[in-house]
Amino acid sequence: MSEYVVYILNSSTYNKIYIGYSSSLNERFYPHNLFTNKGYTLVYSTWRVILINFF
C-alpha cells in the first residue's frame, strides 16, 4: 500500500496558499522553491510548509 502526503504551503509575501499531494514528498516539494520551475509556485515563491498529513 502506498503512502500519500497532503501538504499546504504558504507564501506570506503574497498571502497565497498552495495545496498539494504526492506519493513522494521529497521529490515533489523540492521544486516548489526552485526558481527554474514554471507556474503558480514560481510566481508566488518563497514557500514555507504550514501543514503535512500522511495517509
Short description, anyone?
By secondary structure, the chain is an alpha+beta fold. It is 16% helix and 38% strand.
Count the strands? 3
Q: What gross morphology would you assign?
A: globular
Tally of individual helices: 2
- Class by SSE composition: alpha+beta
Ranges with pLDDT <50 over ≥5 residues?
none
Query: What is the terminal separation in angstroms?
Result: 10 Å
Query: Number of folding domains?
Result: 1
What value does the Rg take, in angstroms? 11 Å
Question: Could you explain how this protein is built, in words?
Answer:
- The protein has 55 residues and is α+β, with helices and mostly antiparallel strands.
- The chain has one domain (5-54).
- It is built from two helices and three strands.
- Strands 2-1-3 form a three-stranded antiparallel β-sheet, with no helix packed on it.
- The longest helix is centred in the middle third of the chain and has 5 residues, at 25-29.
- The chain is globular.
- The termini are close together.
- The mean pLDDT is 82.
